[in-house]
Amino acid sequence: TVLAEQRDGCLFLTLNRPDRLNAFNEAMHHALRKHLTTATEDSSIRAVLLTGAGRAFCAGQDLSDRDMRGGGEAPDLGVTLETLYNPLVRQIRALRKPVICAVNGVAAGAGANVALACDIVLAAQSARFIQAFSKIGLVPDSGGTWLLPRLIGEARAKALAMTGEPLGAETAASWGLIWKAVPDTDLMTEAGTLATQLAAGATTGLALTKELIQSAADQSLDRQLDAERDSQRQAGRTNDYREGVTAFLEKRSARFTGA
Ligand code: LHQ
Fold first, then answer.
1. Which residues fall in a compositionally biased region of kind Basic and acidic residues (predicted)?
2. Overall number of domains in the chain
3. Is this complex's ipTM strictly greater than 0.90?
4. Helix (H, G, I), strand (E, B), or coil: what is residue 256?
């Protein structure tokens, strides 16, 4: 359900249920979590790139797993979130390496919000982001209600969530929902280049940067200045900092090891 390939310090992950537009079932959740755990633990992996197979990125929860037409009780969705989606979003946000998402086609429901939970999101020009939840009587999950207003403001967040209207990649980029929209044919090359470039970066510095920017969302400037001081002290003790300054002075490109 998830293809994985390690190359140039980067773990390339592809959601692979194309017949169902890569909708999430339990097996895909477990596979994705397992690969992200590998990315967390394996120091030779210094960036992750997530994309989808076929014409979609991910259509959210697989609704054929949620068929209630037999008249059975609706399963407790709180349990689904607590055991599957929430740990996934937490894992992406806590991963001390850049997670790049290449949104190759439609990203709907939890599929959209898992994409947005990644650190840098590129999307094919033809891709669409759909907060599909309202169409089936649900609320945005997988961090959507937290992330959307922070990224694009309450007005746009509410309208997207309440209407379920598709948002094109170019508009998403111009609103600041994602990093950028790129021509469909360039998406994987551009995302791959970015991922391998980040994998060759100063991994500790990047991890601290991710942490700082994420924690700023609910921190005062005063506290954040303190946090920057502490993180900079830590970054300043890495070999990569020493190498970065040395390379600058020697007018050559830096060779970072991630330590
Ligand atoms: C699908 C799906 C799908 C199964 C396309 N499931 N088969 C969390 C906790 C627990 C429960 C509930 O949910 C959540 C969070 C959520 O993610 S809620 C939101 C769930 N997702 C949706 O509501 C999106 C449903 N899909 C769509 O609206 C459309 O398929 C989109 C707009 C994504 C794409 O439209 P099209 O390009 O027109 O493709 P299609 O609709 O023809 O889909 C192609 C096939 O994929 C089709 O199967 P078929 O056998 O007819 O070829 C769809 O049934 C299947 N598929 N999404 N989520």
1. 223-232
2. 2
3. yes
4. coil
Atom number of ligand 1 nearest to Cα 81: 9
Nearest CA to ligand 1 atom 54: 20
Q: Which domain holds residue 74?
A: 2-199
Residue with tokens 């999101």: 121
CB contact at 8 A, 195 and 87: no
Q: What is the CATH number of the domain that holds 98?
A: 3.90.226.10
Separation of CA 226 and ligand 1 centre (Å)? 45
The pair of three-digit structure tokens given for residue 90, joined into one six-digit string: 């937490």
pLDDT tens digits, one per residue of 178-215 = 999 999 999 999 999 999 999 999 999 999 999 999 99
Owner of token pair 């590129």: 122
Q: Which of 15, 20, 64 to mutate to test the pocket of ligand 1 (most atoms within 8 A of CB)?
A: 20
pTM above 0.90, yes or no: yes
Whose Cα sits closest to atom 55 in ligand 1?
Answer: 20
Report which protein residue has its CA nearest ligand 1's atom 33: 59
